Sequence to fold (146 residues):
Amino acid sequence: MNPRRILPLLLLCSALFFQPAWAEIAVIVHPSNTVTLSPHTIARIFLGKQKTFSGEMKAIPLDQNINTQIYTDFSRVVLRRHPQQVKAYWAQQLFTGKGTPPRSVSSVEELKSLISQNPSFIGYIDAALVDDRVRVAYRFDPPPTL
Fold:
């Protein structure tokens, strides 16, 4: 078989059978924060378009490291943007003085520790890593497999 025909065939087969590893995402808040959140509200908070939870309590988003799979999944599923689009969005917001990106944390443990100390913080982690220091405000289920 012609090598020029094999490569497209291999790419097509790998695209059909490749299933990315995607974990359930838990959006977490302080246990005393009883807010009910929608996917739309969560996206608005993490894009700096909404500064409070429902009511008067300030909402301060905490981001995972940009190089993690959970960041990529959150960007694509919740923010509905590729991670590079999110990066470009925040570069534009900074340049125009319209906002600053969420503070990035170095680990899941740091994220849970910060949220457990401040009711205004909101973050996201793999749902399997939730413990009693935080409360799940919303869960994004993995997409169905074919």
Residues 10-19 have pLDDT under 50 and may be disordered. Residues 87 and 101 are 9 Å apart (CA to CA). The beta strands are 25-29, 60-63, 103-104, 121-126, 135-140.
